[in-house]
Design goal:
Layout (H helix, E strand, L loop, with lengths): L5 E6 L6 H13 L9 E6 L5 H10 L4 E5 L16 H5 L4 E4 L2 H6 L4 H13 L3 E6 L12 E4 L13 H15 L4 E4 L16 E6 L6 H9 L2
Parallel strand pairs: 1-2, 1-8, 2-3, 3-4, 4-5, 5-6, 6-7, 7-8
Helix pairs in contact: 1-2
The protein binds 2-phosphoglycolic acid (PGA).
The site of 2-phosphoglycolic acid has 13 residues, from strand 8.
Length: about 220
């Protein structure tokens, strides 16, 4: 019987140069023995510009970590200036975050954009983590993981309550039939324990508490 591993997504957002990303990985590597790797899958999501350096370092040092992108183009490869296509992402990444609330807010991404991106990701077999802010947001059927991330909880130090997360998860499950549910919003080493018993929980999206490698290792060592 294989145990389902919890997924921990480190979302670095628009932080870290590629040099700083590699520094992070070096510190992480020195502390690997503090973490039980049997029960978890860890994905780091650097900015596009830092993805190749991060991925090459992870491969060269055999780190037990996958790389994810924070976004992808809703278009094929081709004449789309500034876009990064699923094929280009697949060269270095296994996972991709789609529809983060910051992209919906600052880049005006619509539910239709999220749908297009999820479809495009699946053409290259990327594992999709689709973010929703509530239980009524449409969820593409191409979502491998659904991350519930209420806006009030992101980067505020004020996470949603385990009781409310459980309610939202159960509604998302009723509506979509999906069980791979992640929670994101002010998760840190101090509060992560309070979320562990939530039904359908498959993992976490972690922003602020993933930026410092020691803080992130500390968080992982609690699970
Ligand atoms: P936070 O960010 O952990 O800083 O709240 C979470 C996210 O936006 O994915």
């Amino acid at each position: 019987m294989s145990m389902n591993k919890l997924l921990f997504i480190a979302n670095w957002k628009s932080n870290k140069t590629s040099e700083q990303a590699v520094d992070w990985l070096q510190v992480f590597k020195k502390n690997l023995s503090k973490v039980d790797w049997e029960n978890k899958t860890v994905v780091v999501c650097p900015s596009f510009i830092s993805v190749p350096a991060s991925s090459l370092y992870i491969k060269a040092n055999n780190l037990p970590v996958f790389v994810g992108a924070q976004d992808l183009s809703g278009y094929e490869s081709g004449a789309y200036t500034g876009e990064v296509s699923a094929l280009q992402i697949k060269e270095f990444c296994e996972y991709v975050i789609i529809g983060h609330s910051e992209r919906r807010k600052y880049n005006r991404e619509s539910d239709q954009d999220v749908q297009n991106k999820a479809e495009m990701a699946k053409t290259r077999n990327l594992k999709t983590i689709v973010c929703v802010q509530n239980e009524v947001a449409p969820v593409p059927k191409e979502s491998d993981f659904i991350a519930y991330e209420p806006v009030f909880a992101i980067g505020t130090g004020n996470p949603d309550s385990p009781q409310n997360i459980a309610k939202v998860f159960s509604k998302i499950n009723d509506i979509t039939g999906k069980v791979n549910l992640l929670y994101g919003g002010s998760v840190d080493a101090k509060n992560i324990d309070s979320f562990m018993q939530i039904p359908y929980l498959s993992g976490f999206l972690i922003g602020t508490a993933s930026l410092d490698p020691d803080a992130f290792i500390n968080l992982l060592s609690k699970c």
